[in-house]
Amino acid sequence: MAYAQPSTAPTWWRGAVIYEVYPRSFADGNGDGTGDLAGLRSRLPYLRDLGIDAIWVTPWYVSPLADGGYDVADYRAIDPAFGTLEEAEALIADALALGIRTIIDIVPNHVSEQHAWFQAALAAGPGSPERERFWFHPGKGEDGSEIPTRWVSDFQGSTWTRTTNPDGSPGEWYLHLFAPQQPDLNWSHPDVRAEFEDVLRFWFDRGVAGIRIDSAALLVKDHTLPEYREEHGPGEHPHVDRDEIHDVYRAWRKLADSYEGTRVLVGEVWLADRARFAQYLRPDEMHTAFNFDFMARPWDAAAMRESIDTTLAAHGPVGAPATWVLSNHDVTRPVTRYGRRDSSFSFAAKRFGTPTDLAVGRRRARAAALLTAALPGSLYLYQGDELGLPEVEDLPRELIQDPMHVRSQGVDPGRDGCRVPLPWAGSEPPFGFSPDGTATWLPQPAQWAGLTVQAQASDPASMLHLYRDVLRARRAEPALGDGPFAWLDAGADVLAFARGDLACVVNLGSEPVDLPPHADVLLTSDPLERGRLPRDTAAWLRLATGSPDASRPGTEEATSTP
Ligand code: NOJ
After folding, report:
1. Which atom of ligand 1 is nearest to the CA of 70?
2. 3-state helix, strand and coil shares in percent for the chain, rounded to the nearest 5
3. Domain 116-175, what fold?
4. Do the Cβ atoms of 505 and 541 come closer than 8 Å?
5. What CATH architecture applies to the domain 12-109+190-468?
6. How far apart (Å, rounded) are the C-alpha atoms in residues 559 and 321?
7. In the structure, which protein residues have their CB atom closer than 6 angstroms to any atom of ligand 1?
8. pLDDT in tens, 417-459
9. Residues 466-479: tens digit of each pLDDT
10. Is the pTM above the cut of 0.90?
């Protein structure tokens, strides 16, 4: 079947489908067991056929990989394990020729300890201008042996590590909100601002269509280094979401807008306060930000409905489209999460041995694909979710590299379970990810033989088929993507809404339900039962011409466009 063409409009990003590539685990072109740019380039036709508009590639820069590449040693060079700058340029061009834009990851909060600036700061010693680009600070106590603050790292433990002076004596401490290998930059320093604007230009000049901004709410810190207190109001937290941060994104937006074509800023903004979140999406700041609130919700109609409502209500006033995200390289795969008794997501709750029912999870993940693809705004799809891969929960402990696991003394399983190399073809590992006989950087489960792209491509009931159908239909339906949205009343356990003459209905209850009046059934996530929608199933319906559903009294009109 022919594919509708991707949008060429300057507002393409408002309704785009963006596929997250974690290059280390996507496809291995040089046969060393680690994914790379050659592998990604060779699989671009697969992504075109899936029906996506853009890829977001997680960090591909030179990195010691202390945090899977989020510890960047050189923002202008590709890690040799992944390829070369020329290959990155060729990838951007090849993808564009297939109608796929490239969004890259920018990591501004911290650098790698191997970054030239940090090495220079260590060598230059206390009081040097080189140290002012970071957060070096003397310790408390007479001998400076106590941490400057008790701020807690996102990767557990302290946010401070003590340095050793060039003469071998114990020195100052430096701040790292993540691992010690990721020293935080000082965003009040003009060098830091100028450097990142230059990095943005470097990549915009090479044709990238946008940037995903890592840890976007964390950049600015309170210089007085106070302890965090409950009484801290919005904007007063010592290192999260401080008001001054918006200057940075205003400057970046100006820079992006100075380029031809639309260059989008996509923020990784983890904030519970929806009004504060929306501030990042004001017309002169970022274009969009990930909707983690929805991603973390359990499989429960009321919880999801509330998230959809608060999401649309928060985005409306700033005129930004919402985003819908089921997972990414940091969180538990949907097939596994939705099969759990508690199907919400939180980093703190992750433990080994949490039971899941994968059959239930898979049904729900299929229905969630229809749900999220029908909601107004743009859609993110993490590699492997289109194959319905489960989280790999039995990786040999000694092979887990994620600092979240290592720094928790092995209590937190970490995030490697969703980063296992993709299965492409064949009946045993490495499933076409690497040449036969190659050990992949994380081992793939033997049970993935039925989940390879090859196996699913020929199975009309597979997750891959479903995703292809969903994305094809989404592209063909002008009412989907960005645009108006209206709830339909279909009962407490059912999410039902209209998008123009189309409706999406999702049954999260325990019994089959009747479908609302409709002219046609376009797609279902699993077969209907005698015309009724079974539990954990979603359907896209064509409403009858002139159907009053989308505007009838009692339904609430909401829109993602102002
Ligand atoms: C968010 C990224 O998605 C995650 O993988 C990383 O560990 C942290 N930011 C720190 O850069």
Report:
1. 11
2. 30, 15, 55
3. Oligo-1,6-glucosidase; domain 2 (3.90.400)
4. yes
5. Alpha-Beta Barrel (3.20)
6. 9
7. 67-68, 70, 107, 178, 214-215, 268, 329-330
8. 999 999 999 999 999 999 999 999 999 999 999 999 999 999 9
9. 999 999 999 999 99
10. yes
